[in-house]
Amino acid sequence: MSVWNPDNIKDVAESIGIASLSDDVLQGLSSDIEYRLSQVLEESLKFMRHSKRATLSTQDVAQALRVLDVEPLYGYESTRPLRFGEASIGPGQPIFYVEDEEVDFEKLINAPLPKVPREITLTAHFLAVDGNQPTIPHNPTVADARNQELVPKGPGANPHIAAISGADNVTVKPLVKHLLSKELQLYFSNACSAVFDENSDEYRAAALASIRTDPGLHQLIPYFVQFIAEKVTHNLKDLFVLTQTLQLTSALLDNKNLYLDPYVSSLVPPVLTCLIGRHLGSSATPLSSYPLRNTAATLLGSICKKYAKSSHTLKPRLARTCLKHFLDPTKPLGTNYGGIIGLQAVGGIEAVRVLILPNVKVYETLIREPLEDEGSPKQAEAEAVLTALIAALQTLEDDTFGFLNGGKDGETANQDRKLEERVGPLVAARVLQMHRPSFVKVLIEA
Question: Is the pTM higher than 0.85?
Answer without folding.
Answer: no
